[in-house]
Write a structure and sequence with these properties.
alpha+beta; 2 domains; five-stranded antiparallel β-sheet; 11 helices; globular
Amino acid sequence: MKFSIANQVIAACGLLCAASLAGGSALAAKHDYAGDEACAACHKDIFDHYRQSGHPLKIQKIAGKPPVYPKGTSPGVPAPPKGMKWNDISFVIGGYGWKARFMDRQGYILTGPENRQYNLANAHLGNAPQWTGYDADKAPRKPYTCGDCHVTGWQATGKDGPHQDGLPGIHGTWASPGVSCEACHGPGAAHVADPAKVDLSVAPNCNACHIRGDVTKIDASGGLVKHHEQYEDLLASPHRELACTTCHAPHKSTKYGLGGFKGEARTCVQCHAGQAKAAVAPDAHKACMDCHMPFTGKSAVSVAVAYKGGSLPVGDIRSHIHRISSDPNWKMFTDDGSFVRTDAQGRAFLTLDYTCLSCHRGEDKAWAVKNAKRIHGRK
């Protein structure tokens, strides 16, 4: 995949930020972190928005009771895995927006063919809450090594430890659970002690976690993009030069109507006013994202939908590829289904089955090819 010099720098910076700001570097000791409550003293409004988001809740310590989520957000996790009590669980991973996974009293993640992952209800897909398996083909439990993107100040230590809270299943330690203010802005103890002289980073750091391996490849499985691939999506899109904060308010959640997406009037329309006004019919689509950001990714659940002459999966994560191809011969995924296909310039494309036929299920690809461009008033 080919990138501009700017994007090569962005990609490299993202990997460095993932190592340093997210805590993967040994340079930041626990005493360098102040804890997010210290931030609230001067940044109360921002802090209140951040505490309503899923970031600080990526992992929660359990003390014999269910995990707690902010009012008006996640309905929560009603019970531990079947056959277990909350006293059998040390930490819950997630539970905000999509799914929850569970760690046993020794800090290992529970795996198995059933009752290991709790999927929240999804109104868009019509799915009720459900229990499913997790890593069913692997060992009954696996070590926790996911701290780079789940906690603040993660120090990977391996099986020999030391281990967070002395739990052998956790192959590392952290300054605080969850993605806190300091996970993105850097260790803040020195700033709290002398804010006039010590500044923290304010550079967008989304690409430290919304990424999976090689930034030049968009990982996929089962006809859907894997979760936390938004940065790779963006690099393969027409918006590769834009920061995530162009469209997102970084301290707010995109779930539960909390304003994480700034709205089309402040994003899409700013650059694409002509296309927005030229739609062939005002009711042809509800929003730009309905076509340009279809649900091509999967975090927890997906459903299969049939259209005239075929079928496709619909996931629970919106695409950030944005660019649509009307070429009926272009395939969105590689032949083995492991990645999103890109062209010689490194560009990815949404195909008409995902953008049109996931909604217009009574039509076929020929209809989509004929009508796709008309949405913006072109013949």
